[in-house]
Design goal:
This protein is mainly α. The protein has 13 helices and 4 strands.
């Protein structure tokens, strides 16, 4: 069987199969009953449409739930593993898993309705590559956080960007959570506020004194009435026609100040989330506390940070272990025979 690296077109409304109609029911179930975000629902739709379109070409007619079997999923995985993205790279195991998770969730939905198809537990996810954690600490972190103040931009841009960096490091917010913030969400008289994260779950995040200070400085310069916390500004510091910053805009801001700070490692908005978690763990916070502050639903997700605690654990060991014994020499000198 040949596999072509081609873009597959989704079904048109006039060609909706029973399988496709069930998918629409499933997406409505995600949105209404599971309270999944519009972005999650849209992504599931894209993944499933690609699977169904591929299935119609490779496994005719592949139009009913019974047509989904283990061999079909195996061949689809093989097809995906040979695809390349726009940069010419093969899909990562994580990206491949997005498709498999969508298919598995759809099959679980079918099972809940007693519709015969492949059992969802028969789909195994690809083993993800070990994640490389990029984070900042110490002098490198301070240089980066202060980079906005070293530019010749207008004060409102400098203060806005400084507030963004301090808020990301202070709270561990995801970039999407940051760009969704409204001015009314932030109470500068308090050290905390609520944020709506993945899956519509709310959590409390905390503001450092630095974050509060620079947010206040930035907001004092705002003369507009737009509700967004962080707005787009032109080089003169005036509002642009489109108001709120996008995640991509914030990523460009982070990249800009990494360059100004002379940081050569790859730095993203998520690197500040990593830095937040690393800082907490190195200061002695336990991993379950960090899990709550990051808004992770699973402890396994937070455990990617456990490597940063190794140095801390070594210091604890050296400080507290075996202090009742005097000297550094062994209990029995090498010249002595303990059995004599």
């Amino acid at each position: 069987m040949e596999f072509k690296n081609t873009q597959l077109t989704p079904h048109k409304s006039s060609q909706k199969t029973p399988l496709y109609l069930l998918m629409e029911d499933f997406l409505e179930h995600l949105e209404v009953e599971k309270n999944r975000s519009p972005l999650t629902t849209r992504n599931y739709k894209l993944y499933l449409e690609k699977f169904f379109s591929w299935g119609q070409k490779e496994f005719p007619p592949f139009q009913k739930p019974e047509d989904i079997n283990k061999e079909a999923v195996r061949q689809f995985r093989r097809y995906l593993s040979r695809l390349k993205n726009q940069e010419g790279d093969y899909l990562s195991p994580n990206t491949l898993n997005y498709y498999l998770i969508a298919i598995r969730s759809f099959l679980k939905y079918l099972s809940s309705r007693d519709i015969k198809s492949l059992a969802p537990e028969k789909i195994d996810l690809a083993k993800p590559k070990e994640r490389e954690i990029s984070f900042l600490e110490g002098k490198e972190l301070e240089t980066f956080l202060n980079a906005p103040l070293q530019t010749k931009e207008s004060d409102i841009i400098r203060f806005r960007d400084k507030a963004i960096l301090e808020l990301l490091f202070s709270t561990g917010l995801r970039v999407s959570e940051l760009t969704n913030l409204k001015i009314e969400n932030i109470n500068l008289e308090k050290d905390e506020f609520q944020v709506k994260g993945k899956g519509g779950k709310w959590r409390i995040v905390f503001l450092s004194n630095q974050a509060k200070y620079w947010l206040k400085k930035y907001l004092e310069m705002r003369k507009d009435v737009h509700p967004e916390l962080f707005i787009r500004l032109d080089k003169a510091g005036k509002n642009e026609e489109t108001f709120g910053l996008t995640p991509r805009s914030v990523q460009r801001i982070v990249k800009k100040y990494a360059k100004i700070a002379g940081i050569t490692k790859k730095l993203t908005t998520h690197s500040l989330r990593h830095s937040f978690a690393t800082d907490l763990l190195n200061a002695g916070a336990n991993i379950r506390e960090v899990q709550k502050m990051l808004g992770h639903s699973s402890l396994a997700t937070t455990q990617i940070y456990t490597h940063v605690t190794d140095t801390h654990l070594k210091k604890v060991y050296q400080t507290f272990h075996d202090k009742h014994r005097k000297g550094d020499s062994p209990l029995f000198p090498t010249s002595a025979n303990p059995h004599q």
